[in-house]
């Protein structure tokens, strides 16, 4: 008799503990009949969230009171829940009694109680999280706009001093984006390549204009001075915290896979992917276009040059993508403005 009483007391204590947890939970909880979906119990949090009293919820189906925005989808989900025993929605819109929509995380699972099966729905209000996510997206959009404006401003600095180099950077950026897209790189990566290309020659503002436009062969000293533009560009950009490898791409865009490039004669995989793409796009644009002091050799000669250097000077995947862009996709450079 004492054992039976003890078991009964333990059962009551367990039920009381559950009830306290149920009543004080900071998530909404609904208990539904397994067969019909009729609401059997509702805790205070869910009544406050939806604006219904407990009495208005008990005995009703969740879709009957209009809380489920899409009734047909709710009925389908209920069928799946009965079959699988579990269903989860990361972001589900529920309609309050006052017709306002509230976004929730909705988790339902079925389990047995005293020989019967019931469904428990745990409902978490994520409205504040959604608001923060929206604010974060707006902030990120604002930051992206600011970064684009900053890069455009830097690019225009070189335009003011050397219009040819400004146009060259824009055309290299256009081709680099086409190559990166052909290689199926992520959009975020492509955007970084575009920005790096727009400022890849920014270091040339440190080079005297008479050297940039000199119509005859440069002296060894002048060549060394010209080649320093990549280091100068890197030094200008390295302290800007871009979410891309822009400073390194600028520094390395004249490096070559066999170590014959500059400024550091690095080889192979040490050359970053962005620089490999810029190196090909830069070579094709520079060779094919007219400069103030000489005529361009044309697209065919430029493409032949990178094809001959494939897998030695230039990344073979980048070269193949560039050749396809021109020969299959019919790419042409945008006109100089």
From TrEMBL:
SUPFAM superfamilies in UniProt: HD-domain/PDEase-like, PYP-like sensor domain (PAS domain)
Domain PAS: 14-62
Record's signal peptide: none
Start and end residues of each HD-GYP domain: 143-337
Residue ranges of domain HD in the record: 165-287
Pfam families documented for this protein: HD_5, PAS_8
InterPro entries attached to this UniProt entry: HD/PDEase_dom (IPR003607), HD_domain (IPR006674), HD_GYP_dom (IPR037522), HDIG_dom (IPR006675), PAS (IPR000014), PAS-like_dom_sf (IPR035965)
Superkingdom of origin: Bacteria
GO molecular function annotation: phosphoric diester hydrolase activity
PROSITE patterns: HD, HD_GYP, PAS
Protein name according to UniProt: PAS domain S-box/uncharacterized domain HDIG
Organism: Polynucleobacter duraquae
């Amino acid at each position: 008799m004492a054992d039976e009483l003890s078991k009964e007391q333990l059962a009551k204590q367990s039920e009381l503990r559950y009830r306290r947890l149920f009543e004080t939970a900071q998530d909404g909880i609904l208990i539904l009949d397994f067969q019909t979906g009729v609401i059997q119990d509702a805790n205070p949090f869910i009544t406050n969230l939806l604006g219904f009293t407990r009495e208005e919820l008990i005995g009703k189906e969740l879709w009957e009171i209009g809380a489920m925005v899409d009734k047909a989808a709710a009925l389908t989900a209920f069928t799946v829940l009965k079959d699988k025993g579990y269903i989860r929605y990361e972001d589900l819109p529920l309609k309050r009694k006052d017709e306002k929509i509230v976004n929730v995380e909705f988790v339902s699972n079925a389990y047995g109680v005293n020989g019967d099966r019931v469904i428990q729905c745990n409902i978490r209000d994520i409205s504040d999280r959604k608001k923060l996510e929206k604010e974060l997206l707006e902030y990120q959009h604002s930051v992206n706009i600011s970064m684009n404006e900053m890069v455009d401003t830097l690019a225009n600095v070189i335009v003011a001093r050397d219009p040819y180099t400004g146009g060259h950077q824009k055309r290299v950026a256009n081709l680099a984006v086409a190559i990166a897209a052909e290689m199926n790189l992520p959009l975020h990566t492509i955007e970084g390549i575009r920005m790096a290309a727009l400022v890849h020659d920014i270091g040339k503002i440190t080079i005297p204009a008479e050297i940039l436009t000199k119509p005859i062969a440069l002296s060894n000293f002048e060549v060394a001075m010209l080649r320093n533009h990549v280091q100068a560009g890197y030094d200008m950009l390295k302290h800007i915290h871009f979410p891309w490898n822009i400073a390194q791409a600028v520094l390395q865009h004249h490096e070559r896979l066999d170590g014959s490039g500059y400024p550091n004669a690095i080889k192979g995989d040490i050359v970053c992917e962005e620089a490999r793409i810029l190196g090909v796009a830069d070579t094709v644009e520079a060779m094919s276009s007219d400069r103030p002091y000489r005529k361009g050799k044309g697209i065919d000669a430029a493409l032949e040059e990178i094809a001959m250097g494939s897998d030695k000077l230039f990344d073979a995947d980048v070269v193949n993508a560039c050749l396809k862009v021109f020969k299959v996709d019919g790419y042409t450079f945008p006109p100089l403005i």
